[in-house]
Each structure stands twice: as structure tokens, then as C-alpha cells.
Amino acid sequence: MKNSDTIRYIGFLITLIFIFQGCSTIKTNKMNDQLVRITGVAQNGKAGALVKTNDGKAYYIEGLNAWPLDIHNKQVTVSGKLKTETVDENEMKNEQGEWKAGLVGEIKTIRNAVWKLL
After folding, report:
1. Distance between CA atoms of residues 87 and 20, nearest Å
2. Of 49, 111, 64, 60, nearest to 87 (Cα)?
3. Exposure of 1 by Cβ count < 10 A (0-12 exposed, 13-18 middle, 19+ buried)?
């Protein structure tokens, strides 16, 4: 293989990588694994336990389906690593255009969460 063929081949591979990255409908934030401390109300949602802040933002707690009864609906502080991903609404439709169950938009999840009542 000549040098010019090698350069074209590498260019082709790089182009394919960019095309496939652009096709992904679930995008992760570059700030993932940022340590955070969130204060809000412990609530349960369809996708699991979450903390709802005063400004209306929801942060899901990874691995927790529901808050214990003694914590549910009370003020808590949760610390952990923040994971943010964005799910496009088209990802939530099947081949017939019917909606699947799931969350759409920006989803914030706290991993390795530790919480305490305020």
C-alpha cells in the first residue's frame, strides 16, 4: 500500500467514526462523574427514587427504586457523582411510531449516592 493510499484509508476511517458518533441519539455530558451535592425533597418517580430541587430539577438516584418511608417527601442532601445524558424523543418510538416507556430529554443521575436528612 502506498503512502497516499494509507492516508486516504485513515481519512476514511476517521470520517466513519464521526458519522457513527453523529447517529447516536443518546448523548452523554462531558461533565459526567463530577462530584455534586444536591439538596431537595426525596420523591419517587416512575423511573425510581429522585431528589427534586427548589428550582424544579430532578436528580435520579442510581440503584434506588424508591425512598425508604422515613425519608420519602422529606428534605435531603445527596452527594455523589453526577451522570447526565440526553435522550432524543425519536429514540422512544418503535418502528410503527408508537411511544415506548422511558424518559426523554436531559436525565440527571447521581451515582454512588450518599444521603442524609436535613
Report:
1. 16
2. 60
3. exposed
64 falls within a domain: yes
Contact 9, 16 (CB under 8 A): no
> What residues make up the domain containing 111?
27-117
Is position 10 within any domain? no
- Evaluate whether residue 16 is within a structural domain: no
Phi and psi for 15 in degrees, rounded to 5?
A: -60, -45
Number of domains in the chain: 1
Instruction: Please state the pTM of the whole predicted model.
Output: 0.65
Question: Is residue 15, in this structure, part of any structural domain at all?
Answer: no
Q: How far apart are CA 83 and CA 35, in angstroms?
A: 10
Tell me: the pLDDT tens digits for 52-99? 999 999 999 999 999 999 999 999 999 999 998 877 766 667 778 777
- Domain CATH for 91: 2.40.50
Q: Residue 88 has what DSSP assignment?
A: -
